[in-house]
Write a structure and sequence with these properties.
single chain, about 280 residues, alpha+beta, two-stranded antiparallel sheet
């Protein structure tokens, strides 16, 4: 920042005085009526940059900015498709303004909370939309060192769902496990769990689907997996797993309906105020 301050002072001393309103910003360079401000440079200056590096960075950035402005000026004078560019810019501006305006309207006026009853109703009326593309599972996975203490206990516990046994496993995992994943309480893609295990199988996901109680070892660890519940590809997605997807669908429907009402109201108001003139 000291370097940047020095550059600013130097530029202020050598620059010509003008009557341009910079709105509180500090000009560093002016080319063809375009200004580079100290605030612009400050925003891109790397943090914790050494003094010499900061000077080089600032000089390089300013030089590049000047060259870009000169190139743009030259292009605007010589490009033969200026009208096409103006049309593209106008179209982009049109889309951008509409998008931002719609977002602001929806932030201000659209109720963003979708009720659970709406999600449940949509799910039951559109079951064919929510079919699994990959297997889901609930269960438990634990990875322990080959020479870890209590491995035999883990072997007895990992496939049990008794609350007391699960508490023992959780306490054990805090002290001894290299990795531990409890997912009895939520559906997970089976592939996300299987990738943790060094299985020597052509299709590890299918293999685990057929072998829900699994013990595997390599040169350093034991891997234990118990799949308590399994849903296969093509089966119905559980409501709790599909809820986020349904919420987004309902929000999109709500957005479309909201914008339709806004457009209709604006059209009627413009008609009533005689703002629309038809030439046919």
């Amino acid at each position: 920042m000291v370097v940047l301050f020095g550059i600013v002072i130097l530029c202020m001393l050598v620059s010509c005085g003008g009557q341009v309103n910079h709105h509180g910003r500090t000009p560093l360079v002016e080319v063809s009526g375009r200004y580079l401000y100290a605030e612009d440079l400050r925003s891109v200056l790397p943090d914790n940059c050494l003094r010499d590096d900061s000077i080089l960075f600032a000089e390089h950035y300013i030089r590049n900015w000047i060259e870009d402005v000169l190139l743009l000026d030259n292009a605007e004078r010589n490009v033969s498709r200026a009208s096409e560019i103006e049309e593209l810019v106008a179209a982009y501006r049109h889309s951008l303004v509409l998008h931002l305006y719609q977002e602001e309207l929806m932030e201000q006026q659209l109720e963003r909370e979708i009720k659970d009853e709406q999600i449940d109703s949509f799910y039951r009326k559109n079951e064919n939309l929510f079919l699994l593309e990959e297997p889901l599972a609930k269960g438990l996975y634990i990875k322990v060192p080959l020479k870890g203490a209590g491995v035999n206990d883990v072997r007895k516990w990992y496939a049990q769902t008794d609350r007391e046994v699960l508490e023992k496993l959780e306490k054990y995992s805090l002290q001894h496990a290299a990795d531990y994943l409890y997912f009895y309480d939520r559906w997970m893609p089976l592939a996300d769990v299987v990738e943790k295990i060094p299985l020597q199988a052509g299709n590890p996901v299918d293999y685990v689907g057929r072998n829900p109680h699994l013990e595997v070892r390599d040169t350093a660890f034991y891997y234990f997996l118990h799949v308590d519940s399994l849903l296969k590809s093509g089966q119905q997605k559980p409501l709790e797993y599909a809820a986020g997807e349904i919420r987004e669908i309902l929000m999109n429907i709500k957005r479309a309906d909201f914008m339709k009402r806004i457009k209709s109201r604006l059209y009627k108001e413009a008609q009533d105020d005689h703002q629309i003139t038809y030439y046919y």
